[in-house]
Structures are given as C-alpha cells and as structure tokens.
Write a structure and sequence with these properties.
Two copies of one chain form a homodimer. Chain A is of the alpha/beta class. Chain A is 38% helix and 20% strand. In chain A, strands 10-9-11-12-14-13 form a six-stranded mixed β-sheet, sandwiched between helices. At the A-B interface, helix 1, helix 2, helix 9, helix 12 and helix 13 of A face helix 1, helix 2, helix 9, helix 12 and helix 13 of B.
Chain lengths: 561, 561
C-alpha cells in the first residue's frame, strides 16, 4: 500500500529548471514511486491528479503556492523524502552555474552597457515588469515568457514602437538576429531569406527546411502568437517587415502566422505590398482564393513557404511597385451585387485579405455576416440568387429587375465608391444582359461620375449571348470588364491600396544590424545557448521582487507609482 | 402626388416568368411609375418597401398570396392599371408558346417514354412531390428549384440511390450531361475533364475557363449546394465520382464545393483516393495545409482548378493505387502529442480532410474544440506547449516529463492505435530527446505491440543534437520517423485509408451514357434551351395541384397516403 504525502509552501518561488530538477531529485530517493513539484494552478492540480499525486491537502493549495508531493512505498519513506526537499535545493543550486551573476537588470546593464537585447524568460506574472525595465534602458526585448496579459503586451509594444525598439513576444519561442539564435532556434546557414513570424515552431520548420534544401536565412523576427490579433494590431510584425524591407541582405521575405484578425490581415498585406521584394505569405489555415497578387505569394504550408521563397530567391526579378496613378481611386466602399453564389463566395474569399470590414449574406466567418441582405454596410458582397430572394421570382441570372433596383440604390449611397457585378453567360441565362444593365451603369455614372463599375463576365466564345459584344457594350458604358476573376481581384486590390492607411514603424536598421549583445533574465540555458553561439551575453541571477510574495509585490508596485 | 394601390389574390399561382412579364406589363401602362407582382413573402414585402411599393393592404398579405402593386401619377391611373391585370394575363399567356404541352408528368412520360431525365423548376414547395413522381417513373432528376427542405432532399436522394438514379439538386443550377447543358450552362468543347460540383456558378466558371484555355469537358454533374452537408452525406457527389470513375472518356476529375461538413469531406476524399485518375479538389475556402496526397490535388480557386486539371490531362500518368498491404493498419485513434504549437496546428489542418472526428486544444473550428486538454477523444492533436501547461514548468521542448506521462496514458487507452510526436531540435531544446522518449516508446510497444508510433523530427544537420543519431534511435525503438511534414501526412492518410468505410453508390454507366432525353417541368426557357441544343425534350404545362391552394393540397396529400 503506497502513501502519498504533500507539503505546501505559500508564495515560494523557484524557476522552472529548479522545479524540474527538484522533482527528479525526489523521484530518485529511496522508496519513492513518483513525485511532483509544481505551482498549484488548477491545470497543474489536474495534472497531479492524472498521475495519482493529488492529496486532500494539495487540493486546497492556491495558484501562487508551491506544492510538493511524493508517493512512496510507505508512510515513513514518504515523510523522509519530503524532509529532504531543502537538502535537495541546497545540493542542486550551486551546481547550476559556477559563474558570478548580477542580481538585477540594472547591474547587468552597468556591467555590459553595450547590450542591445534583453532575453526574458521569467514567469509570466513578472515578465511585463522586466520588459518595461529593459525598454527603459533602451534595449530590444525577446520575451519568451508566456502567461503575460494581452493588456501588458499592448503597453509594451506601443512603448517600444514609440522608442524605435522591438518587443518580440510574449510567448515568442524563436528568433535569429544577426546570426544568433534566441530561444529555440535551429542552426542554419546565412542567406537571403528574411522571415517575420507569429509562430515559434513554424519558424523552426521553415528555417530548417530552407537550410536542408541548401539555402539560408538573413534575419528571423519572432513576434509572439498574438501580434496579429485585433488588440495588438500587428505592431511587431509591421516593424519586422519594415526592417526586412530596409535590410540589403534580405532579398525575399516570408511572413508566417496563424490566421490574423481580418482587419490586421488587411493592414499587413497592404504594407507588404509596398515592399519591392517578393513576400511569401502563409497565414496558416486562413482560406484564400488566390496564389499571387503583385509581389505577394500565398502558400498553404510551412514546407511550401520555404520552397516558394527559395524558388523566388533563385529567379529574382525586381518587383515593381506598379505605378497606380492611372488607376481610378475609389471614393468609397465596394458593393458586389452577384447573381452567382459561388462567384460571390470566391470573390469574398479573395478580397477578405485586403478589404475590411467586409460583409455578406454568404459569409465565410460569422464576423462577416450581414443580418439584413437588403442593407449593405462597409464593403459588401451580396448573392442575389440566395433562396430568400427567389421565392416566386426568376433567378437574377435570368431576370435583372432585382439587380437593377439594387444597383440604383447602391449608386445613390454616398458611401459607395465601386459597384461590382458578375454577368454569367450561357444556356439558361438572360439572352442579353448588357442591353439591360449597361444603360443603368450609364445612368448612375451620369449622376455620380466618380462611381466606378467593375463587371466580371463568365462565358465562352460559343455561348449564345455573343461574349465579345457583351464585353464591348459594358466597356462602352464606362465599366472595367474582366473575364478572369484573378485579374479582377488584382485590379480591385490595386485600386484600394492607396486608400488603406499605411503604418510607419521605423526602426533604425544600423542599430538593428549591430552584433547581438544580450542580457538574459530567466532560464540560464538560454544564456548558455547564446554563449555557445559565440555571441556576448550576461546572465542575471533573477529573483522575483518581494520573494514572489504577491501582496508585498503589489504594495511595492503602488509605492513606486 | 403619386398614388400607390395594391390588390391581393389569396393562393393564386403564376410561374415566375409570368410574374416578371406581368410586372413589366403593368409598368408600361400609362401613368404608371413602378409596379410589383410578387408572392407576398416577408423578403418580397421588404423588397417592395425598398422600392416604395408597400401599401398598408400589402403589409397584411400572407406568403401564399399574390400581391399586385402599382404606383401611378394619380388615383385614377393606379386604379385603371390594376384593373387591366387580368387582360395582361390573357394577352401574355398565348404568346409564351405555340406548342401543345401535356399537363402532367404522367402524360409527358406516355408521350416520351424514352425520357431518362426530368428537369424540375417549379416553386420549391411543389418540387419535392414532382421529383418523387419522376423517380417513381425511373428517371434521373435535375432539380433546379430552391426553397426545398433538407428533409425532402434527403428522402429524394436516399430513394434515388436505392434505385440507381441521380437527383442533382435541389438548387442545382448547372449540369452538362452527354453534351447537353441543363439549367445554366456554358457552351463548351467536349474533352477529358469530368466535374462533380455542389456549386452552380463555380461549375460555370470552371467549364468556361477550361474551354477558353482550349480544353474540354466530358460530364458535369451538379449536386446542389447542400449535398456535402452532414444531413445529406454527399450522396450525389459520391454517385457522381463513381460515374466519372467508370466513364472512359473522363481522364481527370474535378471536385468543387463550398466547405463540406468535416466528416463528409473525409468520406469524399477517401472515395476519391480509390479512383485511379487524378482528382483536383477545390473545397472553396476550406483551409488545407497540403497540395497533393496520392492522386488528389488540392487547389484554392476556380481558375486554378481548371488550370490544374488541364495540366494533369496533358501529362497524364496512370495514378497507381499504392499497394498499402505492407502499411501498418491502425488499431484505433491517432493521438498527436506536440511540443510545437504551430506544428500541432498545421498537422490538424492537414489531417482534418481525412480523419474525423478530430479534436484539439488548438482547434481550427469550434467543432474540434477539446474542452479538457487532459482527456483525448476520437483522433486528438494536443499542443503541450499551450499556456495552461507551462505555469511553473519548462516548455515540453526542454522537459519531456509531461509528454512522457501523457504518452504512457495514451498508450494504455485501448481506443488508441497510433501515437504521433514531434521532436524539435536546435538551440534551446532538450539536448537529447531520443534518450528519454525512445525507451518510453519501447516500453509502450512491449505492452501493446499493435501500437504504432510516428515521430516528426524538425532540425538541421548542424544542430547541436546530432539529427542522424536522433533519427536512428527513434527508428530503433520501432517508430516511423519523418523529417518532412508532407510525407508524414501522406503516410498517415495511407495508414487510415482502409479503415475508412467505403460507400458504394453504383449507377449503371451505360444507362447514364444514353443520349439525354428530357421532360421539363417548370420554366419553359429551360425546355427551349434543351431543344436549341438539339436534344429531345418535352415540356409539361404544369399547374400546382389544387390550383396552388395550400389547405386543399395538404388535404389531397393526406388522402393519398
């Protein structure tokens, strides 16, 4: 009959390496079957329970408490093991490092004032404070710590942006700055591909694949997984793109992240299009309906991102920022009035990466849902062939009445700048759509000459309607006519490019290109990793303020402000 | 001052062509500014209101009522216009067709017994009944009508499947059967590309693009937009794939639809993989992380679908159904225990098209959400680096403890057949992961030899851990080791292929290849379109049972059953 015993140490702080070592140390003691040494968060209590290590006492522990548990062969051995815990601490501690380390960031800065980076891997609740101190010292931050609130992230990144500094993270796993890997990073060759990524192992998979295929990377800028959320607005990603745009060694850029918030995707895409280098975009799992717009190349896997970037770097042609001065500048929102449901859906899919906010009665996600299909708002794509419109009425591919009425209404809306129509030819469809729709376009443009019309014609040269004649009549009415969806999408993207607000996020590239010199606060293994890569670093033997006591900490905090 | 007047005709039925013509007729009368002739559904009332055509009387009309509205210069002209409505009916009706048409499907069948297809475009509430009659007569159905309930759709398709017949639709806009376009269809060349599509204008865009690029199509099978929903189970799509598999003229297949229900995607993909022809898949907007698995080619736009199919048809290599007899057959669910968040997410993204149900703590959609990350269910992908797991604990890329505990737990679960692990090498990571994980794999395989392990190793030849040694040690423990995510995904797909239930949906290909002879019930323009394509057809001068009176209809219905 085994016995499980536990001990609680309220508010005690040990770093996670020591916690791991202590747990292993307990497990190796005589008669001990299993042990746990954890901060008593609900998740950690559940994990202890999984391993049959949760006691009644343990259940009562609070998230800030250190909980020590052993399961041993009998009562005596369990008690004996627990009693050796402090000896284990004493035994393990001196082993960890033989160097002398400063105890504070300020002291480290005095010892190594040329440090331009601070690596932070202390527990999440302390991390924001250390990051603020680092910025105050004028240093860039690699913030590995997770469990940092999004509010703290926004404060840090906004502050850094104003100071021309970078905050990579929180929860930033990976970066390679001037050849030095920070956090988790593979050894890879130097090369021409620069990467900005809101995804740690994504960056590792891409950089490894690039190296394994014989190519190399210039800079790898991590941003933390939440950088492309609405709250953070892509601050670090935009700074990273700006850096890689300036960096002469970077010839091709990869941008990788989980699906961004739609309006952030728009902003990032718009900024990426202003770079005269190819940009490979992998918004992992963000559905798109295109492969290439201008200098942007959309891919759907990490492997493909690496392979596309290598292929582009081998066949480098200077990407021209097309002169869009002769493109019409839209004077307001785009309204797409579709007769074809799938055409509407695919168009929405293509445009959602660069137009925002966008709404539809055939939405791709619930944010795009247009509650009243009779009232457009923002950019809107309407499928007029939806069931609700077709009770006792011919399909809009046969009968233009409904579309003409809607066209009139939209064209009278001063918020509207562009009206987009599909015209589907072939058997079954209206015998002569341009005859009815072109006059309506002329009429609308007479009232509001600044209004632009775009017509997508789907059909063949042997369709009954005479495709060439349809094209020419729509063109004569002043509409831009396309017979390829991809070309139309590129045109619309170009039209709206200048309308999208550009974010300036300038970081001095010369400062950034200085050799990496780092202060490491947190996991000592990260310090050793930097040293082993022959970069200069100093490790801070960091302790939580007030010994990790939350109440005392918050009191200190209040006294300071 | 204009005057708007309206008239309600309870339960009156006119087909939608006539409604359109009557509305136009009213608009052309002296002094009439605008007019509406509609079934008084809420949507149609709202549309009338948009056009300033909704009166107090009109608001009170019921969905089955016909509502006639005119807005004229004065009271007299409005009254006068309304009074001419019946004259307009008389004037318009004889113009529509000079032929004599049978009044019922049964009579049409007597006149043209060789008819193998019935085209149905009557209003939704009558359409299911006509489709049932058509199946009872042994005919395939092209069901253009929308506003048909999903329950009716399921009944019809289940019945058709048992009889070896096809029901394309409801809300099927497009098909090309043996060279004859049904519904809305472009004129295109004959060729080698066969298409199955749950998307009308999607089919039109693809077929037009194929023709415009100089290639051609064999058969185009529409399914209706809901065919790949859970309720309908892809019945028609599976039948369509089966037909194109048998059809010797079809060398490349395209499958196009809006995103299917996950378990239906799985089933369709699995069936498509059993065809020894290339299959181009465009689940529009369904995120995927791969380009190619076996004979399947995933594309993300309609244009790309056409272009990929043409390119495959030009470079046709016989797709081999790989002999998977020497592949391990999984004895249960797959459980992925990941240290890398993005690797977990991308793997989920790749596997969701062929494994179902699949759950995760980093889900792509809410159906996949795993409420308790400590308890797997079905196929599961866990990211062990998520914040909840890392409070006071080293990241699983540094410390294997959590993963080893979970590995043990999963391997003891009799429902588990495969355990998948990622191993990320490089700076910062554990110095020798195989030393700790390989023994755990050996241990688990000792207890359950049927358990399979798959290890994805991310890293380079110059990483500190010695990648080759890691690979070899994991292989020695009996795991399948991959260094490419795409190869691993293909392997897992192949392992599980035989485990997925195959649907047989056999339709006699010879019957199907007989020249199209059609009975048209509903829109006369569809009949004229078939005739103009030089196929044989007969039009039914269809009237709703009981003159469209709902109460009488339901009474008749009850008497029949």
């Amino acid at each position: 009959m085994t016995v499980t015993k536990s001990e609680i140490r309220p508010g005690a702080y040990f770093d996670s390496v020591l916690l791991m070592l202590l747990q292993r140390g307990l497990t190796e003691l005589p008669g001990v079957e299993d042990a746990g040494v954890v901060m008593a968060t609900p998740a950690n209590l559940a994990l202890l329970e999984e391993s049959n290590l949760l006691t009644k006492d343990g259940e009562a522990a609070k998230p800030d408490d250190l909980l020590i548990v052993v399961r041993a062969e009998d009562e005596l051995l369990a008690t004996e093991a627990l009693s050796q815990f402090d000896d284990l601490i004493k035994k393990r501690k001196p082993n960890m490092s033989t160097d002398f380390h400063p105890r504070s960031l300020a002291n480290a800065d005095k010892q190594l004032p040329e440090a331009n980076w601070v690596l932070i891997s202390v527990p999440g609740r302390y991390a924001a404070e250390v990051a603020h101190q680092s910025l105050d010292l004028g240093k860039n931050v690699f913030l590995y710590s997770d469990n940092v609130s999004i509010q703290h992230e926004l404060e840090l990144k906004t502050k850094a942006q104003k100071m021309g500094l970078l905050v990579m993270g929180p929860d930033c796993g990976t970066a390679i700055i001037n050849g030095v890997g920070l956090g988790f990073a593979n050894h890879v060759q130097k090369g021409k591909i620069g990467i900005v990524g809101a995804s740690g192992t994504g960056l590792q998979a891409i950089t490894s694949h690039i190296h394994n295929l014989g190519a190399g990377v210039s800079q790898v800028i991590g941003t933390g997984g939440r950088d492309l959320k609405s709250e953070i607005k892509g601050i670090t990603s935009l700074q990273g793109l700006d850096l890689l745009k300036q960096d002469v060694e970077t010839e091709v850029i990869i941008l990788v992240s989980k699906p961004p918030a739609p309006e952030i995707a728009t902003k990032i895409i718009s900024n990426a299009q202003k770079i005269n280098k190819p940009v490979v975009v992998n918004f992992i799992g963000y559905p798109s309906a295109g492969k290439n717009i201008d200098n942007l190349y959309f891919v759907s896997s990490l492997e493909e991102a690496a392979e596309m970037a290598i292929s582009l770097s081998k066949n480098l042609k200077k990407e021209n920022i097309t002169n869009k001065n002769n493109y019409p500048k839209p004077k307001g929102y785009l309204r797409g009035l579709f007769s074809g449901g799938t055409l509407a859906y695919e168009t929405l899919l293509s445009m959602q990466s660069f137009l925002s906010p966008i709404y539809s009665n055939v939405p791709i996600n619930k944010e795009q849902y247009l509650a009243d299909p009779l009232e457009s708002k923002g950019h809107t794509i309407i499928d007029l062939g939806e069931d609700v419109f077709t009770v006792g009425r011919l399909h809009p591919m046969m009968d233009n009445d409904l579309r003409l009425r809607r066209l009139k209404k939209e064209s009278e809306d001063p918020e509207v700048g562009v009206i987009l129509l599909d015209v589907v030819l072939g058997e079954g469809s209206h015998p002569n759509p341009s005859e009815e729709i072109s006059p309506a376009i002329l009429e609308a443009k007479k009232l509001r000459p600044e209004l632009e019309f775009i017509v997508l014609i789907i059909g063949t040269d042997i369709d009954p309607q005479d495709k060439e004649k349809q094209i020419s009549e729509f063109e004569q009415s002043g509409a831009f006519v396309f017979t390829f969806s991809s070309k139309m999408i590129e045109f619309i993207n170009d039209m709206y490019q200048d309308a999208i607000h550009q974010e300036s996020a300038s970081i001095n590239i010369d400062d950034f290109m200085a050799p990496l010199v780092a202060i490491n606060v947190g996991l000592e293994s990260f310090y050793q990793s930097i040293i082993s890569q022959e970069a200069t670093a100093i490790h801070v033997d960091w302790r939580p303020p007030a010994g990790g006591n939350e109440k005392l900490m918050s009191l200190l905090d209040k006294m300071r402000t």
